[in-house]
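Box 3.1 A note on notation
Throughout this textbook, protein chains are presented in two layers. The first layer is the amino acid sequence; the second is a token string describing backbone geometry. Keep the layers aligned when reading.
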Amino acid sequence: MKYRFLPQSNLKVSSLIYGCMNIGGPWSPNPPDRATVDNALACVRTAVEGGINVFDHADIYGGGRSEEVFSAVWSELGLKRSDVIIQSKCGIRRPGEPNAASPHRFDFSFDHIVSSVDGILRRLKTDRLDILLLHRPDPLADPDEVARAFDHLRSNRMVHYFGVSNHNAAQIALLQRAVGVPLVANQLEFNLLHSDLIDEGVTVNDARQRATYRADGTLDYCRLNGISVQAYSPVAKGRLALPKRDDDERIQSTRQAVEHLAHHMGVSGEAVLLAWILRHPAKILPVIGTTRPDRITASLDALKIEMTREEWYSLYLAGRGRDLP
């Protein structure tokens, strides 16, 4: 495993993050069964043995079950708190909370942020989070109110570092102006089939391609301001693993390009997909979320790959589905 210090922090993080979204099994109000816990145990053990030390959560994952399962697994493995970097997210409220008429919404209010962290810590059975991310932008968010919540959590030593998820450059800048602590991370979807973060830079001043990209300079903004970018769904949610009836030509050609390179390198397809992300100089941290220990092991091979420019661009062009300007 390769490690680096997270910018603007004293956290030494692994080059891959293990995403715990699905370790709690299906979303359910019922306690997880033993089979679910045993599978999670195998996954976390494999990740730890492979050198992964960052574990990503969110209060909504599995309705809270994923955090509860992780706490049980962490205890059974005999891990010390200092062995792991625990990150969680808050800010999404599901329909029916707190009553049946409540809609699906985002909530960055002081009360919700603080109460969410209380619940996260209780489920994880720990006294602090290393990193808290705000999950999805709340149109009603008051940056000053968010700042109060961060101050409360930091002064009470409940959270060490803060960041965001799914935020663009302007949203981060607005929030950063109010909060008194650096925002150390931004977690975004990024993969061969969802490459807006770099597409917009490639097509600058190209009159032939007028596609509207949604990244708004976010990747460059994060690099300029010492904000680590984390990539969720780095293997495109498995869409490149097996052929499907509704696959379009772009997906088919991308899968073929990945399979060709994987065969040439003697590694798995997911290792190639992760290596493509790791090759970018922004030092993006992929978040792998498989619940199969063998796929975790296969993913670790990405760290051994020295991808050339030619290989990187071949994959990129396949994923784009069109040539460069």
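The chain has eleven helices and twelve strands. The chain has a mean pLDDT of 94.
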